[in-house]
Amino acid sequence: MKLTYYGHSCFSVELADGTKLLFDPFITANELAKDIDIEAIQGDYVLLTHGHFDHMADAESVLQRTGAKLIANFEIVSWYNGKGISNAHPLNAGGAFHFPFGRVKGVNAIHSSVLPDGTYGGGPMGFIVESGGASFYVSGDTALTMDMKIIGEQHQLEFAVLCIGDNFTMGAEDAALAANWTGARTVIGVHYDTFPPIKLDKTAAHAAFTAKGVELLLPRIGETIGV
């Protein structure tokens, strides 16, 4: 699999079969991602963890341009249905569905969620993606939660994508513990540096993960890495 980071919590994963999954597109409104050409980003599926602007600002334009299928909770899918986007699959925490590329399960996230126009955004969640015999975990915005231990009991993860910026979500120390609980030995850190309250001390973050025996990867915006 290949992962490309687009800043904040936005990234894509190209699966072994070539399917492209795009998560939480927030690019054009992110000054740190000003060099990313959003028109060049392709996706077969767009997955949204919750309704906050900094996770879905570009979702509508990407969905319309690419024809990708939206995967999100029921409330978010319904909201986009009202905008004329019908190629979508509603999924809620605890539920799973088999798509052509593999299985996606919604998992618990402790956060808040409201859509940009003030509409109720449903419950936030993360995802477990299973494809081609491999699986990975995307936490979405969340606090550390004991539910992460269940993930470790049920799945053998290749990697996890965890929020690490603190203030609004887990910080690095909690995220490193989350990695241990889920069994992830490699973590891609997201949700940091975009706003002043989530500026990341990268040296301290790496130290927190090293202390737990976990590799923390912080790809540059626009960088593609193998995972």
Order of helices and strands: EEEEHHEHEEEEEHEHEHEE
Helix content: 10-25%
CATH superfamily, called what?
A: Ribonuclease Z/Hydroxyacylglutathione hydrolase-like
* Unreliable segments of 5+ consecutive residues: none
What count of structural domains? 1
Mean pLDDT: 98
Keywords:
single chain; 227 residues; Metallo-beta-lactamase, Chain A; seven-stranded mixed beta sheet; 6 helices; 14 strands; 27% strand; globular
Architecture overview:
- By secondary structure, the chain is α/β, with parallel strands linked by helices.
- It has one domain (2-226): Metallo-beta-lactamase, Chain A (4-Layer Sandwich), CATH 3.60.15.10.
- The chain is built from 6 helices and 14 strands.
- The strands form 2 sheets. A 7-stranded mixed sheet has the order 6-5-4-3-2-1-14, with helices on one face. It has a 7-stranded mixed sheet with strand order 7-8-9-10-11-12-13, with helices on one face.
- The longest helix is centred in the last third of the chain and has 11 residues, at 172-182.
- The chain is globular.
- This is UPF0173 metal-dependent hydrolase OJ996_02520.
- Keywords: Hydrolase.
- Belongs to the UPF0173 family.
